[in-house]
Amino acid sequence: MSLLLDEIAIATARLAEAGVESPRTDAELIAARLHGVARSELHLVPDSDFDPRFWDDIARRQAREPLQHITGIAYFRYLELAVGPGVFVPRQETEVMTGWAIEQLAAMDVAEPLVADLGTGSGAIALSIAQEVPRAQVHAVEADPLARQWAERNIASVAAASPHTAGRVRLHAGDFGTALAGLEGHFDLVVSNPPYIPVGAWVPPEVGEYDPATALWGGGKDGLDAVRVVEQTARLLLRPGGLLAVEHGAQQGAAVYWVFAEENGWRETRNRTDLAGRDRFVTAVWPGA
Ligand SMILES: C[S@@+](CC[C@H](N)C(=O)[O-])C[C@H]1O[C@@H](n2cnc3c(N)ncnc32)[C@H](O)[C@@H]1O
After folding, report:
1. Tens-binned pLDDT, residue by residue, of the chain (289 aa)
2. Whose CA is nearest to atom 14 of ligand 1?
3. Ligand 1 mutation target, pool 193, 217, 227, most atoms within 8 A of CB
4. 3-state secondary structure the chain
5. Which atom of ligand 1 is nearest to the CA of 89?
């Protein structure tokens, strides 16, 4: 066994004891990032190259700092996004909703589908759609200036590799309830992962202490005030027949379904699940006013 693999085994035990959910994966990813190798190549790192800063990073993870803040990277679909203090770390659950949106856009008989991403954070959803739907134009809205800086950075780094992709994402500063005024009735699809956690609900330290508060707490007794703003906004932005996808917490499927119910003018409202089979997002069609 190599020195690095020995150290990873010790680190795994320490992370497990600290309550980290995936201790071995995290220890390996920290080591791989630090040593500039793939996870599958960790055994190839010579003992003489072991970087003692590994233990500084493990201590941060033991203190429940998110893995992505330590490595500086969040993987989202085909993207490697820069993340850190001030921006919400994109989640796997959101990849599923984004995939649904991408499939719908790809199947749409529209030359250049127009998409709104309400509350873009790192730019994860907007950039994925631009990357995977080569003709889509995406308007990404973000109110939080710090989060917006991360989105700008990610758009710039995608632009360096693919100007055509990044050039189809336009970042708007401001509240998603108003920032796209003037574009009403033009959008083919509105997608949003808004804040939706009810105030007072328990969240793990990685979330409560590191994700920005504006990304988490949705407002209202049920945490769904921001979802209601998305509903009001989407009905204005969508063209007749336009599509909506909004993420929510695993326990909120029924409540969010009713926000987009037929009584409110929506059609074909569906609860959809994440990879773990939990209710995770609602989709609906806006038939027009
Ligand atoms: C849960 S995070 C999602 C970020 C990103 N879309 C993702 O899925 O990783 C919600 C984002 O919405 C932003 N936000 C919350 N309320 C907003 C509002 N009223 N207007 C614009 N952005 C808002 C937050 O700052 C945060 O970046």
Report:
1. 799 999 999 999 999 999 999 999 999 999 999 999 999 999 999 999 999 999 999 999 999 999 999 999 999 999 999 999 999 999 999 999 999 999 999 999 999 999 999 999 999 999 999 999 999 999 999 999 999 999 999 999 999 999 999 999 999 999 999 999 999 999 999 999 999 999 989 999 999 999 999 999 998 889 999 999 999 999 999 999 999 999 999 999 999 999 999 999 999 999 999 999 999 999 999 997 6
2. 119
3. 193
4. CCHHHHHHHHHHHHHHHCCCCCHHHHHHHHHHHHHCCCHHHHHHCCHHHCCCHHHHHHHHHHCCCCHHHHHCEEEECCEEEECCCCCCCCCHHHHHHHHHHHHHHHHCCCCCCEEEEECCCCCHHHHHHHHHCCCCEEEEEECCHHHHHHHHHHHHHHHHHCHHHHCCEEEEECCCCCCCCCCCCCEEEEEECCCCECCCCCCCHHHHCCCCHHHHECCCCCCCHHHHHHHHHHHHHEEEEEEEEEECCCCCHHHHHHHCCHHHCCEEEEEEECCCCCEEEEEEEECCC
5. 9
